[in-house]
Specification:
The structure is a single chain. Helix content is about 0%, strand content about 45%. β2 and β3 form a beta hairpin. It has one helix and twelve strands; from the N terminus they run βαβββββββββββ. Strands 1, 2, 3, 4, 5, 6, 7, 8, 9, 10, 11 and 12 form a twelve-stranded antiparallel beta sheet that branches. The chain is mainly beta. It has one domain: Immunoglobulin-like (Sandwich), CATH 2.60.40.1190.
Amino acid sequence: MISKSCLIHHPDTADSAIKALYIGVKAQYQNGNLTLRYEVQGNIDKLLIPGIQPPSEADGLWQHTCFEAFIAVVEEAPYREFNFSPSGQWAAYSFGDYRVQKKWQASPAPAIHFARSNHQLVLTAVISETNLPYNPHNQPYRLGLTAVLETNAGEHSYWALFHPSGKPDFHHRNGFTLSLKLT
């Protein structure tokens, strides 16, 4: 199954050049993997893009330009969070409920591919089905796909499929709006 959508900037975003960016997202399940593709188009020269690093797990990626996925089984509290940096670094977290983190280690590590051209950034991340939340009844998943964009001036903008009211909160379940059924 393939699901496509686009991310919208948080209403507090002030920079008109950043607000003019387009971020398309695609989620596809195939051959035991969930592939997420984030595509940023527009004046990307204003963005601060982390330099390439050896692929590794790292905390704090959300403090710079990164792409994220929040994944839950429909009607269930537990969820997983994945952060993907253009640097090639990644992070994965498990939560039993809203912001209640549980000990967990992703295995195998997500695969990340990043490409940049004059007016486009594309980050593709592949997550093994073994890293998705436990789903014994094969219920649909709900995804919250998001991005944090850092400008060269050090300002941040927050992008999501949907922003619940208030400050940016990617963990809020109302932001998990993309349905995906693994078949």
